[in-house]
Amino acid sequence: MTPFPDQPDRVSEVGAPDRVVEVGAPDRVVVVGAGPAGRALSHRLAHRGVAVTLIDPHPARPWRSTYACWSDELPDWLDPSVVSAEVDSVRVIGHRRTEVHRGYAVLDTDRLQETLSVVGDSPLVVCTAEAVAVAPDGVTLDDGRRIDGRVIIDARGVGGTGPRQTAWGIVVPTDVAAPVLDGASAILMDLRPADPTVTGLPSFLYAVPLDGDRVLLEETCLAGDPALPLSELRTRLAQRLSRTGIDPALATATEKVSFGLQGASRDPWHRRPTMFGARAGLMHPASGYSVAASLATADPLAAAISAGGDPTRTLWPHSARMVQRLRAAGLAVLLHLDADDTMRFFDDFFDLPVHRQRAYLSDRDDLRGLLAAMLTLFTATDRRLRRHLVRAAPHLVGR
């Protein structure tokens, strides 16, 4: 909500528009960034009765991205109505075809944003302004105001440098997508080349139901530095779909994706104020997934803040730091794989037992499980892929 022009240090309180409260006070928690991570943390703090100020230049801007995750990653507190589609298994296609028997959910973005924005008669206020400086004890806004708080959380998302993930997608009716799905409930990755003439960085098809009537068909560059441009991905998607007789002109909507895969720091546990969400490295650098991790982490972090604990220590125990280093090594591997190596890598990865896959993809502080998964994968790969894995070792350096 917009600050009152005659009272520049005060805003209306969410759920009580006729009331006015101070946005900056020593007992308040200040969260900067109203994306999924910032909204989720603010929601859980407010649920616990913690006074929160949420700062964003466009706090009500609709979220347009498609968010999806493994079903078992979603926290219990999240309203089940935010799941718009869910399947029991997904297919991965490389040199061979693998059915991954782990539930996968696609979220209703509008419903998710609505759910995280509604907190009833809670002590949450929203300040419509841009943060130009975020310090451990306060935030300076673009109009010169300073918002103080006992805890400052920076959840402004990722920057624009370094490796990126890009994608171009179309939304089509379910019956139109049937030839692509070929009996699968969803396709997590079809890593086969979009066309025999394709060269350069690999890309894959991602095909998932958005609801009972629509399917997203998306050509994705998993990781590149630089990543494939959207124009190339659009061309590849058209080439791929032409093999099954699907005309991209049948699309009811399109989706463009481009985001950085690394947080604002390689060692967010050494940075103040505390960062959260993709900015803090909660995005998996080797997959690009972050929303479920932010949702799952929001409530434990809110509990720690409510109890007076150190939010950075809560987010980053030693095991989580090491897991983050190992995941960064995974990104380094992907950046150096050609299309054939990428297919063989994911053939081997998705042949792992699901609990090993989960340890690598989802469990951000299960160091023992991650090491076991990586060792199992290493022994399963051929000599060529092992060399790529060994070359990623320098990315493990850090404290």
From TrEMBL:
It comes from the Bacteria. InterPro entries: FAD/NAD-bd_sf, Lycopene_cyclase_b/e. GO terms for biological process: carotenoid biosynthetic process. It holds the Pfam family Lycopene_cycl. The keyword Transcription regulation does not apply. One of its GO terms (molecular function) is intramolecular oxidoreductase activity. Keywords: Carotenoid biosynthesis, NAD. Belongs to the lycopene cyclase family. This is Lycopene beta-cyclase. The gene is crtL.
